[in-house]
């Protein structure tokens, strides 16, 4: 089996290193790699195509949160998604929620022109800098924003209460944040300041 030139392999490795071995075809193109080079790398087993336009270096150590990394890269066109809603609660370890899909938020102006994979549920919302944490290189909504979004998306009151208590117990919520959320959402009530329900375009 022919081997890829070291310079090309090293170039892709440098591109993917900050993303736990993952990269997009758009990123590769911006880095000077031709599409046929990516095809050749996949054919030789240097890379794996994990979803449309998203690749992983086959030799890179397996990242436990790889599915989340792949998800945030999936939107492409210069857009990085943010893990949100129930998936963000699971990422933070808040409540026993176990979503069947990965919930991802992108800006309202981003329009997807290809089919959404069955393992993703897409939401549109404006997220401020204070709404997003970057954990292990993955953008994810903060515990407060995650709880608000999950509540607005009608996650059960028991799981919302559990998420708040878990946040208080683990210190992922400040006491004042937990108290405020419990007062607002613990009984299932919502007020005008709750973020609007996001648009879902993918299957649940």
Task: Note down, in words, how this protein is organized.
With about 200 residues, this protein is α+β, with helices and mostly antiparallel strands. The chain folds into 2 domains: about 5-55, Orthogonal Bundle (Arc Repressor Mutant, subunit A); about 65-185, no CATH class. The protein is about 40% helix and about 15% strand. It has 8 helices and 8 strands, in the order H-E-H-H-E-E-H-E-H-E-E-E-E-H-H-H. The strands form 3 sheets. A 3-stranded antiparallel β-sheet has the order 1-3-2, with helices on both faces. A 3-stranded mixed β-sheet has the order 4-5-6. Strand 7 and strand 8 form a beta hairpin. About 35% of the residues are buried.
Distance between the termini: 42 Å
Helix content: 25-40%
Percentage of residues in DSSP E strands:
15-25%
Shape: elongated
- Quickly give the structural class: alpha+beta
**Average pLDDT:** 85
């Amino acid at each position: 089996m022919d081997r890829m030139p070291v310079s090309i392999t090293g170039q892709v490795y440098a591109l993917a290193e900050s993303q736990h071995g993952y990269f997009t075809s758009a990123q590769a193109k911006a880095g000077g790699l031709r599409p046929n080079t990516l095809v050749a790398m996949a054919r030789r087993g240097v890379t794996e195509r994990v979803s449309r336009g998203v690749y992983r270096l086959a030799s890179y150590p397996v990242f436990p949160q790889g599915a989340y990394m792949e998800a945030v890269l999936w939107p492409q066109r210069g857009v990085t998604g943010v893990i949100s809603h129930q998936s963000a609660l699971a990422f933070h370890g808040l409540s026993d929620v176990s979503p069947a899909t990965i919930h991802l938020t992108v800006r309202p102006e981003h329009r997807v022109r290809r089919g959404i994979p069955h393992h993703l549920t897409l939401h549109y919302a404006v997220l401020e800098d204070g709404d997003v944490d970057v954990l292990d290189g993955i953008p994810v909504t903060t515990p407060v924003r995650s709880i608000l979004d999950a509540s607005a998306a009608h996650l059960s009151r028991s799981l919302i209460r559990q998420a708040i208590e878990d946040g208080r117990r683990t210190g992922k919520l400040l006491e004042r944040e937990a108290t405020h959320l419990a007062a607002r959402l613990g009984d299932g009530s919502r007020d005008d300041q709750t973020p609007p329900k996001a648009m879902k375009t993918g299957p649940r």
